[in-house]
Write the structure tokens for this entry.
Amino acid sequence: MKPRKITINDIAKELNISKSTVSRAIRNHSEINSETKKRILDYIKNIGFEPDALARSLRSGLTQTIGVVIPAYHIPFYSIAISGIQDYAFEQGYQIMICHSNNKIEIEKNNIKALLNSKVDGLIISVAEDSNTNQHIRTLKSIGLPLVMFNRVIEDIKASKVVVNDYYGAYDMTEFLLKGRKRKIIYFSGPSNLLLSANRKMGFVDAIHKNKIDDGNWEVIEGDFSGKTSYLTMKEILNKENEIDTVFCVCDEVAFGVMKAIKERNLKIPGDIAVAGFTNEPASDLVEPSLTTVDQPIYEIGRTAAKLLFNQINNDNLPAELAVLDTKLIIRNSTRLINP
């Protein structure tokens, strides 16, 4: 059964008083007996509501709560982004409810249902890797729920989105890496159904073509965002060929898996193979050697997503907005032999 939002009528029935009396107590009206007012406010607090928040909710129909759905808790990107979302929401007097899909579309659907049942005033989501079918996201738009997608977004859904300039981030990193390449460069791509994967791959490929790299000297490896997958794939690649001297990865997690496979072959990074990632997760500066990567302003991504959501909550006639944040290259020891 769906949880039901508390109403003035519920409180009046429970306390056996009129709805107008409850309303006056919540609004701190002068024309109410002090003992009755105290009884009503004590009851409201006992059921877990702050009178001021409940008053706003009853007046506006809002719950002062937004929902956030992320693919996984263990990915540092999302914990930092959530900090940005929460800080902005708190400034607006809101709380957030967080769910994670474990990168599974069915769990993602259940998360959304649970948040809708909780009557959230809007939803911020970064979709699961296997979100090939997206009718559940389209449904949110059809019912008029304020919606913002961030990082992992679906291109053909008309909703507000927050992304970084994935194309130019990948393009600039590829240009940098090509300065040190002498043999073969490979790119580990992400799930093809996600816009960020497509844009980063396009940035890599366009830089390759611009620099007139022969077809046999570059390759794209299709994959996911898992370090375990990239580790196993890189092991297989190293068993088959030894021409690779540069690897660029769709995200830092993938780069960590690649680095592990290279080290297990007793090859040196960057002496034998240079490696670069994309995200600038906190661990990228802690691994050995430290990882060259494309920096995303993660906290600002979360904060911007929240800002766009509250724009919709406060004005439901706003058109969908697209926020594109800049990236920058962070050059560290995993490519140190390349001159910037």
Remarks:
- Residues 166-295+329-335 form a domain with the Rossmann fold fold (CATH 3.40.50.2300).
- Residues 298-314 form the longest helix (17 residues).
